[in-house]
Amino acid sequence: MADLLRKPFGKRGKVHDITPSSAGWRYVGFGLYHLKAGDNATEVTGETEVILVMVEGKARLTGAGQDWGELGDRMDVFEKTAPHCLYLPNGCDWRAEAVTDCVIAVCAAPGKGGHGPRRIGPEGITLTERGKGNNTRYINNIAMEDADFCDSLLVTEVFTPAGHWSSYPSHRHDEDDFPRITYLEETYYHRLNPADGFGIQRVYTDDRQLDETMAVSDGDVVLVPRGHHPCGAPYGFEMYYLNVMAGPLRKWRFVPAPEVEWIMERDA
């Protein structure tokens, strides 16, 4: 079985630490901190650029030689308000001091020195509806390709109502053949409401050489190295996920799974 489902390894401090080496790929890194009020987290970006996403709670952030003040006002991710985020390029350090209990995601990918540090959101991030019927979900785009904030990173939040599907119709972005398709590795950081529920995510290739279906719990991370990757939120439990994507080209182009291409065409 592929090691695609990663459980948090604790309840306080750094509970996820996914690197390209540990994931077995080349581009995407993902870390997650659970901090109590007064706790600190400190890192250096090294050869990566990062986007720090205030998933929940408030923290004072410094980075790249600047004091960014207190970031965050969403105390529960399922408030669905726009997040406070901070972009930092490669070759700098950062520090977070928790003002309240907080959850901070560290989205990482290769940095090329092409962009300076900056705050992202909540201004300019608008919750947007996507899909139809039971495929409806709601998107907070943090740094997709239309926003020239980053060298490599593509980052977005998705809220999937209970009983709905998401990242569906099934699609893949695992070939470097722009403009038809781009190669993008991807992580999904999942949250559930109520938190004791579960969601479903399948990762599969057309030839089924990779075909894994996982029950995801609140706080789990799923790796998508290749293939299609739809999610389902069971009736009674809404799902949130934070996506991090990166590859050789900062473009998101995908190809639908043959069996669901007609759905994508019908609902376009």
Description:
The chain is mainly beta. It has 2 helices and 25 strands. The strands form 6 sheets. The chain has a 7-stranded antiparallel beta sheet with strand order 1-22-19-24-14-13-12, with no helix packed on it. The protein is globular and about 50 Å long. The protein starts with a strand and ends with a helix. The mean pLDDT is 97.
Beta-strand segment tally: 25
Which class of secondary structure composition applies to the elements?
Answer: mainly beta
Low-confidence runs (pLDDT<50, min 5 residues)? none
Question: If you average the pLDDT, what whole number results?
Answer: 97
Comma- or semicolon-separated keywords:
2 helices, 25 strands, globular, 4% helix, single chain, 6-stranded antiparallel β-sheet, 268 residues, mainly beta, 7-stranded antiparallel β-sheet
Secondary structure elements and pairings:
Blueprint: E1 5-6, E2 13-18, H1 20-23, E3 29-35, E4 40-44, E5 48-56, E6 59-63, E7 66-71, E8 85-88, E9 93-98, E10 102-110, E11 118-120, E12 128-130, E13 137-143, E14 154-160, E15 165-166, E16 171-172, E17 174-177, E18 181-183, E19 185-193, E20 199-204, E21 211-216, E22 221-224, E23 231-232, E24 238-246, E25 255-256, H2 261-267
Antiparallel strand pairs: 1-22, 2-3, 3-10, 4-9, 5-8, 5-10, 6-7, 6-9, 8-11, 12-13, 13-14, 14-24, 15-23, 16-25, 17-18, 19-22, 19-24, 20-21, 20-23
